[in-house]
């Protein structure tokens, strides 16, 4: 194997890893209809994901949600679950505006060990969703795996390349 071909293989492998790690999904959770019992369901491959609240300016449909149609009641709480975990995010505050709620929204992350559906929902009391407005938009981004797993095969190839013919 020539050095040129070897380095071409490295560049291709790193490009695949980088391309895979940059794809993000935006999940829009409607506060009027996305309950625990009726969530927004998205499929994800096994891995670790960062969940970041985003607003309309960043490509979401919502900034925050309000459960009373009044000022001072803008919320940023949301949850998500699958067979492997359940995560509920709530800073315990109500804000005067939806942009204040968004500015204080908390990020989270999850790890799934196998390909799975993940369910996203707004937490409100059962039967109380009809008076809600807005929702939460979150960007779900794969956390890049350390590229160290690539180093062993390439190290082995380098070792073979430089020690060719040595017994």
Q: What kind of sheet is the major sheet?
A: 6 strands, antiparallel
- Overall 3D shape: elongated
What proportion of the residues is helical, as a percent range?
A: 10-25%
SS element count, helices: 3
Q: In percent, how much strand structure appears in the residues?
A: 25-35%
Structural class: alpha+beta
Order of helices and strands: HEEEEEEEHEEEH
Output the radius of gyration: 22 Å
Q: How many E strands?
A: 10
Distance between the termini: 19 Å
Mean pLDDT value: 83
- Parts with pLDDT < 50 across at least 5 consecutive residues: none
Describe this protein's structure.
The chain is α+β, with helices and mostly antiparallel strands and 167 residues long. It has three helices and ten strands, in the order H-E-E-E-E-E-E-E-H-E-E-E-H. Strands 1, 3, 4, 5, 8 and 10 form a six-stranded antiparallel β-sheet that branches. A four-stranded antiparallel β-sheet has the order 2-9-6-7, with no helix packed on it. A hairpin with a 7-residue loop joins strand 4 and strand 5. The model has no long low-confidence stretch (mean pLDDT 83).
């Amino acid at each position: 194997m020539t050095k040129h071909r070897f380095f071409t293989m490295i560049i291709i492998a790193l490009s695949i890893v980088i391309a895979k790690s940059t794809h993000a999904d935006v999940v829009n959770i409607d506060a009027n209809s996305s309950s625990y019992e009726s969530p927004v369901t998205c499929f994800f491959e096994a891995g670790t994901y960062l969940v970041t609240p985003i607003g309309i300016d960043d490509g979401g449909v919502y900034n925050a949600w309000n459960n009373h149609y009044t000022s001072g009641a803008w919320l940023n709480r949301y949850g998500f679950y699958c067979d492997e975990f359940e995560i509920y995010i709530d800073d315990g505050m109500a804000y005067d505006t939806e942009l204040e709620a968004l500015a204080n929204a908390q990020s989270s992350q999850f790890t799934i060990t196998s390909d799975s559906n993940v369910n996203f929902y707004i937490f409100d009391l059962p039967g109380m969703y009809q008076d809600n407005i807005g929702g939460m938009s979150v960007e779900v981004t794969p956390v890049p795996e350390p590229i160290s797993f690539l180093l062993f095969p390439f190290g082995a190839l380098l070792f073979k390349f430089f020690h060719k013919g040595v017994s």
